[in-house]
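Sharing a chain and its predicted structure for anyone who wants a worked example. Both blocks are below, sequence first, tokens second.
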Amino acid sequence: MIKNTLHALDERIEVMDQKYKKIVGNLSASLATTTLQVRSRYFHRIGVSGKGVLKIFDKIEGFPDHKIFSPGKSYPVIIRHSNSLSADDDARIDARGAAVRILSNDSSGDNTPILDLTLKTGKAFYARTISDFATWFVCGLPAREEHVKRAPHVREAVWTSLRNADSYAELHYYSNICRIFRFPDGQEMYVKFKLRPINKNIHEDSGKVVPTSILPPETGAIPRDTSDTRPLLFLGEDFRRRVSSPGGVGYIFQLQFQPVPHDEATQDILLDCTKPWDESEFPFIDVGEILIDKINTQEQSEELQFNPFLRCPEIDIVQATSSSQSASIDHGRSLIYEICQHLRNKQPLPESWRIFLQHSDVKVDLSGCPMAAAVEKKESGKVTLERKWYQALWAVFAQPLLQTILPYYLMGLVIFGPLKGALYLKDTIGYPVYLLLPFIWVSSGIAAALVCVAAKWLLVGKNQDGGTRLMWGKGLFMDTLWQAFRILVVDYFMEMTGGSFMFVLLMKLMGSDINISQGAYVDSMGAMINPEMVEIEGGGCVGREALLFGHIYEGEGGKVKFGKIKIEEGGFVGSRAMAMPGAIVESGGSLSALSLAFKGETIRSR
């Protein structure tokens, strides 16, 4: 229930339920482990890529007006071809892929990606949900064969994805996964993508493989025929040769679409990537032509990073909250892709991803990634909590007694004055004692609060912003005594003043920098732990049971560090929220109830 707002949260993780998080976390960790070992992609490891242009046709029949795929527009484009599993022999029968990156056509030359698509041969995928994919990923061939006996369309999806290819440029590639297109009139459509050769004579069954068993071998790639003498990586060489030749390599970019239904059950059926849409009812239409005329180097191809989660108002991702939803496979894989890409390229992992991996059942050694290196524990030759013998004796015997006896002794002295006055009035004028009890309580409570203020300055003094005190030093021993007396006074009287002008005044007397004249509001005893470390501007508000920790122990040199917590004008700290030293709630900012502001964190207004 507490969020670390110091680090950017990933919305893909935030919307997942616990089971969904566990499945994606385990898959991410498993693939991340392999990525760290081989320093390469898990799927589609070896590839070849080229650059070119996507030219949208001047007239698109049957497709509504769209901001991005609008007639006459053109965009820079990158295509990367690869095999699904075969990284050493292109003659092995395997699924073939085409990753497409469409970039913005910026006149300044700063072409940023607007859409990344991962297409493959075959009109369908073998797993409907991320849960199905995880099960397929970990189980053996016998279990898979039993599964496809109950779901023949899954067997067909597996076999029709395989291609005995002669050229990457002579295959049809399908997205299988939907995106949401939004149109200026408010209409929304589910859209699938296809890439086909510009030569209409190349049929979609080009390179199709005839099934020879229930499922292909567990490797997912059937070995080459013994009589095949083609070079090992001939597909890559063929693509380079075609791109470098006059005219380059051409494709037709196609879309298949239908309106987004209103009910969720129908939506889930349409998003099922194991079953292609009926092309007689929803045909693929030609949208544009892609011409690839410049080849990338091997290094450039390896450095390419495709992000399936790229989105904009006009083209969005279909998100999922549960692992049983059809959209879960695309939603989940986008996170897995990015995590593995960061590890492969030795880029720092965002904190939310690192924690996500650490919470999985698969342990990942992140000692080689930059983020992990930054948080490695420092070796220390000296135990920072080490005490002298007399300090240990004091902490074990004297300190507990003082923390118990001294507060009650002071409280007894405080109560004695009002009590003696009440007894004097009874003896002199005969005033009933029971009518004086409220006076005794309120007056002794106010006196106790004032004594608490005096004890703060006598025992503790004023801690400095950025200052330190030794864990076993005299200053912290005195602070502990004062804290014990403060807790007693809070229980006796002070807590009833929470949210009132009196409580804010007491905090100010103890050293807090509070703008009383403009109506600051504090209703939490937890704001008084280190009162001189609290600064509240006009209109600032601290909710009930919020904790403002002006000190922190980090194990460095046995020192406790102090830092000011600042709530600027109109800033809000919710009930049971917690702020650590150096935290700032900016003007109009809100630290929500049950939230945590880490050390040095700034809570900004939205």
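Comments welcome. The first strand starts at residue 47 and ends at 56.
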